[in-house]
Amino acid sequence: MAYFKGTITSKSLQMETELSVVLPQNREDKSSLGKDGKVKVLYLFHGLTDNATGWIRRTSVERYASKYNVAVIMPEVQRSFYTNMRVGVNYFDYVAKELPLICSNLFNISMEREDVSVGGLSMGGYGALKCALTYPEQYSNCAAFSSAADIVKLTQMLMTREEDSRLIEFTGIFGDLDKISDEDDLFALASNAAKLSKDSLPRFFMTCGLSDGLLDANQRISSHMTKLGLDLLYKEWEGEHNWEFWDDSIKMAFEYFYR
């Protein structure tokens, strides 16, 4: 495997932004390649307090990717919640639309739906689910670990804490917190996605630790998606909101998606 960390220019963001990339060097084994003969890819999103290097520094994701000959693209989105911010820049357009085009051109990776997966942890789990539920035609798989899954409830909680600095931050991201858009609400997005034919939807793999503060939100979104008939495998075991749990989770996701 090869590992690169560098800078790309984004039209969506109107600025340069960092990117961490793990790439298979062995492309002679055609059985591991995608439909178009290019490398399969996982877009992997970081959490609120991390950056584009979080996954590569704190887990064995490169080793797991090497086993299945999969490219891993890890973008930088600051604290944006992978959203077209009300006051800020268009991070959702960047990760969902522009980034795959840039990476396909730069690294010769596949853009075929059956070869493309998306995943993330915490804020990144929210972002991965948002991508997969908004544009299900782009992804065959979606992995979400310890996700900040219920933005509506989270913002309602923040509004009861007038001195919480995150209240200002979330207002800049989502706008009027009394009226979270359906475009940012995973529950609404899942309901809309469920109206599509089942074969046009990705598989979902979700995990959350039993001692994680986001457990309730993950249980509710997974129950909601299951009732809607989405193809979801949800697992929970003793664990917290930490890298030990996420390293186990990403290993399981690779095994589920690529074995």
Characterization of this structure:
By secondary structure, this protein is an alpha/beta fold. It has a single domain (2-258), classed as Rossmann fold (3-Layer(aba) Sandwich), CATH 3.40.50.1820. The protein is 38% helix and 20% strand. It has helices at residues 54-58, 61-68, 91-107, 123-134, 151-159, 165-174, 186-193, 215-227, 243-258, and strands at residues 2-10, 15-23, 41-45, 71-75, 116-121, 141-145, 203-209, 232-237. It has an eight-stranded mixed sheet, with helices on both faces. The model has no long low-confidence stretch (mean pLDDT 95).
The helix content, as a percent range, equals 25-40%
Sheet/helix structural class:
alpha/beta
CATH level-four homologous superfamily name: Alpha/Beta hydrolase fold, catalytic domain
- Average pLDDT, to the nearest integer? 95
User: What form results from the Cα inertia axes?
Assistant: globular
Largest sheet: 8 strands, mixed
State the CATH class. Alpha Beta
Number of domains: 1
Radius of gyration: 17 Å
The proportion of strand residues reads: 15-25%
Q: How many helical stretches?
A: 9
Order of helices and strands: EEEHHEHEHEHHHEHEH
Give the low-confidence spans. none
| CATH topology grouping | Rossmann fold
Quantity of strands, as a count: 8
N-C termini distance: 18 Å
Widest β-sheet, arrangement of strands: 1-2-4-3-5-6-7-8
Supply the CATH architecture.
3-Layer(aba) Sandwich
Assembly type of the chains comes to: single chain
